[in-house]
Amino acid sequence: MPQGNSRHSTQQEIVIIGAGVVGLGIAWRLAQRGASVTLFDKNQAGTGASRAAAGMLAACAEAEPGEEELVELGRRSQALWPDFAAELEEISGEAIDLRTEGTLVVALTADDQARLAHHLAFQRTLGLPIEWLSAAQTRQREPHLAAGMAGAVFSPTDHQVDNRQLVAALLAAATQAGARLRQHEAVSDILVEGERAVGIRLEDGSSVHADQVVLAAGAWSRDIEGVARAERPPVRPIKGQVIMLRMDPAAPILNHVLWAPGVYLVPRRDGRMLVGATVEEKGFDTTLTAGGVLSLLEAAWRVLPAIEELAIEETAIGFRPGSRDDAPILGPGPLAGLVYATGHHRNGILLAPITADSIAQLVLDGTIDPSIAAFGMGRFMPPVAA
Fold first, then answer.
1. Are residues 172 and 318 in the same domain?
2. CA-angle at 188, arms to 356 and 167, nearest 5°
3. Total number of domains in the chain
């Protein structure tokens, strides 16, 4: 996979639609290899799903039946994260706060424990490094957890990064490598000549030509016109309401990423604690609702009662880019010159390293990394008539 010391390619003009974590990561890797890269975003860079994300690198704890290939992709990207983070911090000068305490999935009741035991049995068939902790062992790790809890699954390799610091670091690294960022410039169409994408048209009517176009617009990816409807990625917005609480950073009440029924809690070193997130099929609805806030706070309070003393510092709405099968869409499509990097759903931060490396490899070398082969746009395309 392409790294910072890779050989330089002949310069190509690459346009990336979307400047979230995915688009910025791809731009960084492309620019490192000598490509001429311009990113376009309808808003400020990193203010979509990347800003509301929790930053969890949860390849193991979230593993579900039927997602074996996605789990494998997540594990591969998870393995890239330590070197990716170190390189990014060194180049950008920005800390991204990769924390390695791991993740606890808490069972509050006997019924929760039974469900987790069933899930744990499946996860072990995949060889995932996870273990069951008793209530006493769990409370040794997190003494502020609710009394009477049943125990927890511990996933020692599921870490976290600060998503907002990650955006700042990727932006600095990409621009230092030579990528250009055009914010508040919305793309309306992909320009097509013959059977090839040749650039983009902006909403102001101006055009930008390119050798290749990378579609990394997250939940907005399907709204970009200019290509046949069947060639637009089937990505929809999945609304998530998020609350940010404030702990004393010198005496935090939580150190691990914590999952509990109906909620997850993610502590930051500076004292912030993210509480998230609702899962709502409501399009691009930006309404913060009493019901959403209530459900999150109640679920968080049940597992960590001490949150009732914490200040609410911020609330946010994010739109996860969910595909039809909730797996990412990575790689080429039927239209030459157009590459997809979207549909990451809840895994955009986790999959940032492998997405950046594999898409840069595809764009510059024309080869598809076997890791992403199962996640192409072709799985959604109508069958070709015989």
1. no
2. 35
3. 2
